[in-house]
Amino acid sequence: MPMTQKKHPTPPQILSCEVVAKSRLFTVESLELKFSNDEQRQYERIRGGGRGAVMIVPLTTDNELLLVREYCAGTNDYQLGFPKGLIDPGETPEQAANRELKEEVGFGAEQLQTLKTVSMAPSYFNATMHILFAQQLYPEALVGDEPEALVVVKWPLTDWQSLLQQSDFTEARSVAALLLLTKYLEVGAAND
Fold first, then answer.
1. I need a surface site. Which of 30, 141, 156, 167 has the fewest CB within 10 A?
2. Domain that includes residue 67, residue range
3. Looking at the structure, do residues 90 and 17 belong to the same domain, yes or no?
4. How much is the pLDDT for 9?
């Protein structure tokens, strides 16, 4: 049985906030914080654009997952993962998901279901990502902003566990999305 833990009543007081670096995508801030026990500390955080992002787990009528292999600057390598992208101004997460699907894999979705909204590195980063399950796909392509064509990889849903063993399927958000989908489908099957 889990232990009952005392919740902290309020977040620390921000005594000061200074921008220490800024790029096209991120702002790095230095925060001077005062905690409820009067302890003071300096933290740094990265602030994103504020609208968030989407990751889409598309499933074809043949029960195949659609993934993309694309270059990732952080690891300087190609990674296999689910389609994803930023939410543009004025878009809902569902609209952004459909646009990204069309740009990255050449399909739209008649049905989108939010599996979960997750924080990305909340100790240092304020960004959120909406993970959506896409079904009833139809062919429709849009031109995206990728510098090179993405490689679309079809993966049988029945073989999802071997996807976890792939050496280039390591991005935590894609791994979480896959596990969320399998749990969602398992619960749905149990309720049928």
1. 167
2. 53-191
3. no
4. 75
Count of domains forming the chain: 2
User: Which pLDDT score is estimated for 7?
Assistant: 74
pTM of the model: 0.88
Give 23-32's long-range contacts (Cβ < 8 A, gap of 24+). Answer: 25/49
Q: Tell me what pLDDT residue 176 has.
A: 97
Q: What distance in Å separates the CA atoms of residue 141 and residue 120, rounded to the nearest whole number?
A: 29
Q: Tokens for 26, please give them.
A: 């991120």
Q: How many residues does the chain have?
A: 192
Do both 96 and 154 map to the same domain?
Answer: yes
CA distances from 16 to 33, 34, 40, 41, 132 (A): 7, 10, 11, 11, 37
In single-letter form, the type of residue at position 73 comes to A
Domain presence at residue 81? yes
Average pLDDT per run of 10 along the chain, which is 192 residues long? 68 95 90 94 87 95 96 92 95 97 97 94 89 97 87 96 96 96 82 56
**Do residues 107 and 101 touch, judged by C-beta distance below 8 A?**
yes
